[in-house]
Amino acid sequence: MTNHFNDQASLNLTFIDMEHREIFYEIDRALKAYDFSAVGDEGIDTFFAFEGRILMHCNHEELLMRQYEYPDLEEHVQEHTELIGLIRRFKRDYFNKEREEKALEYDIESFKHYFKKHILKEDFKLVEFVKHKGIDKGYFAG
Questions:
Q1: Rounded to two decimals, what is the model's pTM?
Q2: For residue 16, which of 99, 108, 131 has the smallest C-alpha distance?
Q3: What is the Cα Rg of the chain in Å?
Q4: Which of 38, 90, 134, 139 has the fewest CB atoms within 10 Å, counting from its CB?
């Protein structure tokens, strides 16, 4: 159940790729906490770190979109809202203990797939847009 960030998901925008790698790391940690039912402090810390990383990343992207007047800002922000909602529902249900294990596993798998789709579709469009706007080349890898 490993979610390694790979070159296929790379956008060649250094700071966004770095944040995506960190989010995949947090997904791995959340899956391990789920697999081992780490409900104690470590489990709580894991899910708060996961949520915090997502919020920080979405804020960074949204600032970039506003700075460069990205025309699809509203749709992209709506996707961020959905991503954040997925992780918050998973976190709530995980600690609620009323949901069945299969439902919890489905939630984290849903988030993983949604996030990958978001990177490959929405984030790719954003990066292509800011490249055309002349973003500082220091942001880009290579």
A1: 0.76
A2: 131
A3: 16
A4: 134
